[in-house]
C-alpha cells in the first residue's frame, strides 16, 4: 500500500524562516536590481493612493467657485491639479513597465540559480539518500516546488508589497481627513482579519499537505512507469490502479480542502468591503446631517469634499486588503515548496576527510616515483604528511584487504558479519551466494558508497578513509547489473568512462568488450543517438556498452556486479574473451550467479547471510564438497 506520511507539520517559525531565506537569497543574487524594483513598486503604490487627495481638492474648488459662479477661475485652479495627476500617472506607467521587466529577469534568474544550486548540492549527497527517496518525489522538487517560488517572486510578493503600501498610504490619508470615519473602516478591517485568520489557517494547513501529496503521487507514477513491464507480466494493472487511486484521492482531498478554504476567503472579504462602503456612506451622511465636529489631522471640517473621496478610499483600502488575502494562499504554497527545497538543500552532503590522492606517475632512474601531468598508465597514491610537510608516493598496485568488517544499513540490523577479504594485486576474487547474502554490499563498501561500522578496509596498505573519495572511485571501474545509458550518442556513452578519451580509444574499448560488431551495424554507428536509457537497444547490447565504458576508463581495479547476467551464452563467450583481456593485470572483484563465469577466479568466496562460509579456488571448493559443491552440481539453487 502507498505510504501516507506527511512528516512533521511546518510551524509558523519554519514559514517565516523559509520566506526570509528566499528573500535573503534573492537579495544576494540581485543586490542592485531588487532595491530598484522595490522603489518602482512603492512609487507606483504612492501614485495609486493620492487621487483621493486630488478629488478632495477639486471638489473643494468646485464648492468654492460655485458660490460665485466664476467657472473660469475654477478652471484655472482645477486644470493644473489634473495636469499634475496625469504627469504622475505617466511616471507610474514607466515605473510599472520597468518593474515588470526587472521582475521577469529576477524571477527566471532566481529559479535558474536555485535549480543549479539544488543540482550541485545533490551531486554531493550520499547514495543512501537516493536509496531512501522516491525518484519521482525528488523530481517534484525541481518542478512543482520550484514553480511555487516562481509564483511567489513574480506575482505574490510584488502584489503584497504594492497592496500593503497602498493600504498604509490610504490609511494615512484617511487619518488626515477624518478619524471618525477611519475608526469605522478599522472595525470592518478587524472583521476581515478575523475571517482571514480562520479561513487562511485551514487553507495553509492543506496547501502544505498538497505539496507533499503531489510529490508522493509523482513518485508513485514514476515507480510504476519504470516497472511497467513487471506490472504487465504479473497482471498487476488493477492493483496499481487501486493504489494510484488511493494516492490520487489523498491529493484530491488535500487540494479540495485547501482550495475550498481559499476560494471562500476572497468573496467574503469582498462583500465585507461592500458592506463597509455602504456603512461609511451612512455614517458620513449622519455626521454631516447632525453637524458632528470632525476630528482629523488636517483640522478640516467634514464636508462633501471629504466624504466623496473617503468613499473611494474605503473601496481602495478594502480592495487592496482583499488583494493581500488572495496572495496568502500563493505564499503558503510557496512556503511549503520552499520548506521542501530547503530540506533538500540542507541535506547533509557526503563527508570526505580523505587527503590521499591518485596521480599519474613515472619512475626515476633510482626507482623512485615522481608525479607527472602526462597519462603514463602508472598510477600512484600521493600521500602528504602534515607532520613534516613531505609527500610520499606509493605505487597503485590494486591490493585490497578487508579485516573483520561489520556493516548495517540500519542501526541494529547488521548485514555483514566479521568479513575478511584479501585481494592481492592482479587477483580475480569472486563472490557467490544467494540474493541478499551481502555480495553487492561488499563492493559498495570498497567504493565507500557506505562507511563500515567496524573493522578496516585498506587499499595498497592505506586505510580507504584516508583516500579522497573521488580518487578512490576513479581507481575502481564498475559494471553494474542495472545498466544506465544517458541521452547522447553511443560514443558519448562510452566516453562517459573517461571524458578525455579519443574516438579511437573509445572504439578500442568497444572492440575489447565485444561491442564494436553490433555498434557498427547501427544506423549511424557510433554516432547513433540513444534515448530512454538505450530503449532502442537490447539489454545485452546496453550491457556491452557499459562494459566498454569501464574499459575506456582503464582503472587499476575492476568490480563486475553481474556484468554478464543480461547477455546470452553465445554473446557471453565473446564478451568473456574481451573481459579476460580487460582484467589482465588488474585486481578484479566478480559477483555472479552463473558459476561458470567464476571458475577461473583465483579465490571464490561463498557468502550466506552476511558471512563468508567458504573460500578457495574452484577446484579446492569442489574437493571440500561443501556449499559451493552443492551449488555447482545443482544440489540446491543459489536462491
Major sheet = 6 strands, mixed
Please provide the count of β strands: 16
Shape: elongated
CATH class of the largest domain equals: Mainly Alpha
Measured by DSSP, the beta-strand proportion falls in 5-15%
Write down the CATH topology of the largest domain. Answer: ABC transporter transmembrane region fold
The assigned structural class equals alpha/beta
- Any idea what the radius of gyration is? 36 Å
- CATH-wise, what's the superfamily of the largest domain? ABC transporter type 1, transmembrane domain
Under the CATH scheme, the architecture of the largest domain is Up-down Bundle
Number of domains: 3
Terminal CA distance reads: 26 Å
Tell me roughly what share of residues is in helical segments.
Answer: 55-70%
Query: Please, how many helices?
Result: 19
Q: In terms of per-residue confidence, which ranges show pLDDT below 50 for 5 or more consecutive residues?
A: 1-10, 635-639
Mean pLDDT: 83
